Amino acid sequence: MTDSTGELLKPQILWAHMRDGIKLYSELYIQGRSDAQLPAVMMRSPYNGSPDTSFWAVLCRNLASQGYAVINQAVRGTHNSEGVFTPYSQEQEDGYDAVEWAAAQPWCDGRVGLWGFSYLGAAALHASVAQPPHLVGVSAHFAPSDCHDNAVYENGVFNLHFMDTWSANLINDFQRKAGIQGHEIDIKDISRRARTPLSDRQEFGDCKFYFEFLEHPYYDEFWSRMDLERRYSDINVQVQLTGGWFDIFSVGTLRNYRGIRTAGGPRARDNVHLRMVPACHGVWASEDWKFEYSPIADTETLSMGSQWWHHIFRDGTPASAPAPVQLYVMAPPMHGNIDIGFWISSANYPLPNTTARRLFLGSEGKANSLSGDGTLNWSLSEGAPDTFIHEITTPVPTCGGNLLPNPGEFPKLGDIPGPRHQGENESRLDVLVYTSKPQSGAIWIIGPVSVTLWAQTSAVDTDFTVKLVVVRPDGVALNVLDRVVNSQLRNGSKRAPERTKPGEASQYFLDLGDTALKLEPGMRLRLEVASSNYPRFALNSGTGGSATDDGRLLSATQTIFHDAAHPSSIVLPLIDGATLSKGL
């Protein structure tokens, strides 16, 4: 990572010209002979306003030391690059031009790979859709697939915590470019005021995309331009994907794998690798369930995927190549907080020999809180529906989950990501709690989980949240999966909104996400149903008005049915543990 004098390797500053004349600031890291032609690996980032010792510079130096030309490029409208930042939608054309620019440079041998984490990973995948001729591979980690459904919104509900945190992290760079000094976003203060119309959040005035996203609450042509899911057939290079079970983009990572594996071009279909790790979107902060694995200590992460690039550029397909799918199976301990899970390998995902089993919600009409009578049963049980009052002025607080970390900003508002003990929320009467009997033997849940709810509301517009929880014999209840759905998008986030019918039972189908779990005998499963998860998700006013222009706040009476005509349930992917191929 140092040059011949022992100094830190300094980048050369270059400018990449886009087709419309915009120039993008690019840092080139090369170690050794300046006249050598090397394979190039590029990251394209909106986060380059950091000093020379930044995390990104360390990654570039690490990979450059192994014989690659490494480029760290600031995407359009960020850091020193020209133009206006229009997230995601700009990355297809710009990504194409950037790859072809790099391939034509005298220090490149004509082969270019794209690497990225989070937005950088999404930028890499979007570039691959444009099929630049000199792109040979993509290594994309913790990246979304459909920005409407699993990034900015989630099934029609504005992802408030993500958008506030992400925008605040970008806005200082935008203000610097505009010559504005001394004004920083106070995320804590913004989140306290999150019940006001979102259009009043003028602190984000320099993030024009924030308000543009708000103007498009439903999937339309605007979102289709940044939707990878409709373009998997255009991806035709080797792809490596990594995701975290508690990452904010975990849904997108698994959709990207399944989409490329089934619909990608032939080179991509046969050469897409997936690695799912026990991680969130950054530094692990939860003390309730901890893992020895850490993404920031992962040698493949710190080397920008050097083994992958050796495989792509040098070694072909070695006999010892790892299985295409590597999953960490999480195993919560019976006591304490240290996970006892293990790695498994497979040729594909979802795993073969998986059986879908359905657990049905049940009660005698009193499932409110942990003190209620809600059950989860392997067979349908008749019972009176459960009702709760959703008071928007006292929303259910966020407690863990797949959040974008923002350490130290507002921990009292629950922004520590990952699994957390849910006891406080389970004491609320506006949270319905359904719990299974203790497991008589160990069970393995590995794959996609879905929920069908039969729900009724008194409001003209509302949201429902669903959370899957693991309960230990000592009563500690740890969240595993949770998502939200808007009543007008109950039939799918890409479909046109359908009017909510107050007082009428409607069916909601919710893709809850994927997980990999081993539960020991004596553990139980639990499903929690509510109508808010704040400040992770924006609050629904209940009026049917836009989040940008309606200041009224209405309560709602919510009802969940679970009878033969309305079988609310959760579908779990179960597998025989004896069939798993353990180890890497």
Low-confidence sequence ranges: 407-413
Give the strand line-up of the largest sheet. Answer: 1-2-4-3-5-6-9-10-11-12-24
* Global outline: globular
Largest sheet: 11 strands, mixed
Q: How many individual β-strands?
A: 24
As a percent range, the share of helical residues equals: 10-25%
Going by CATH, the homologous superfamily of the largest domain would be Galactose-binding domain-like
The number of distinct structural domains comes to 3
Mean pLDDT: 89
Given this structure, which CATH class of the largest domain is correct? Mainly Beta
What does this structure look like?
- The protein has 584 residues and is of the alpha+beta class.
- The chain folds into three domains: 188 residues, Rossmann fold; 72 residues; 225 residues, Galactose-binding domain-like (Jelly Rolls, Sandwich).
- The strands form four sheets. The protein has an eleven-stranded mixed beta sheet, with helices on both faces. Strands 13, 14, 15, 17, 20, 22 and 23 form a seven-stranded antiparallel beta sheet that branches. It has a four-stranded antiparallel beta sheet with strand order 16-21-18-19, with no helix packed on it.
- α2 crosses α3.
- It starts with 11 loop residues before the first strand and ends with a strand.
